[in-house]
């Protein structure tokens, strides 16, 4: 075992040496996928998998912070997930809230909840807001916790918000239609005021976004990792950073 640990450490150091400190993504989005499949692979319960996945989050944030990432967005619960078995969903909410409270208690990162909290029970939404608010004055890496989040739902919410604002300003529908721009939608997203993700990582081997940050990720680089989220290692993250640093970003040009 010591032999393998030594080889692993040497390999990790080699990847670190290959990283360009000037090519670190400013904003990294992560689709935390594979908790349930990881649990099945070792013959345990889905809740065990969710707890193992939650336990990986702080470790990942430490890696990202150390690498110089400024913003991390973690997709922890989608709007589609709200249709899961009620018993599993109740356990999952307990795990998510405990994880968010633990992150807030670290006093290292500024947390923001992104998603439609109106779809949750009031006590759950309040618990998430309370944990987030407790970090509002924290100077550190920005961590977006995407809960009750769906990309299409976010865009629809942004349009609704923009239209309500235009209505309050006394503008007609025709006036709004004639002047509507991309910037109007961007300014009403859950992540308004933040730069778009430079790199999006998805674990578990699935190669799709499933609606994650659909508007914001139009020019993002994607990295798909075979490991289930609970098995995601620092070397996997370093590989993602290395891959990102080796790419030529054209930004649609």
CATH superfamily: Decaprenyl diphosphate synthase-like
- Arithmetic mean of pLDDT: 94
Principal-axis shape: globular
The largest pleated sheet is described as:
6 strands, parallel
The appropriate CATH architecture is 3-Layer(aba) Sandwich
Q: Calculate the terminal CA-CA distance, rounded to whole Å.
A: 49 Å
Rg from alpha-carbon coordinates? 19 Å
Poorly predicted residue ranges: none
**How many H/I helices?**
9
Number of domains: 1
Q: What class do helices, strands and sheet pairing give?
A: alpha/beta
Proportion of residues in β-strands: 5-15%
Look up the CATH topology: Undecaprenyl pyrophosphate synthetase
Describe the protein in words:
With 253 residues, the protein is an alpha/beta fold. It has one domain (24-244): Decaprenyl diphosphate synthase-like (Undecaprenyl pyrophosphate synthetase, 3-Layer(aba) Sandwich). Helix content is 48%, strand content 13%. It is built from nine helices and six strands, in the order αβααβαβαβαααββα. It has helices spanning 2-18, 35-41, 46-67, 86-106, 122-133, 151-168, 173-179, 182-186, 234-245, and strands at residues 27-31, 71-78, 110-114, 142-149, 199-202, 221-224. It has a six-stranded parallel sheet, with helices on both faces. Strand 3, helix 5 and strand 4 form a beta-alpha-beta unit. Helix 1 packs parallel to helix 9. The longest helix has 22 residues, at 46-67. It is globular and about 70 Å long.
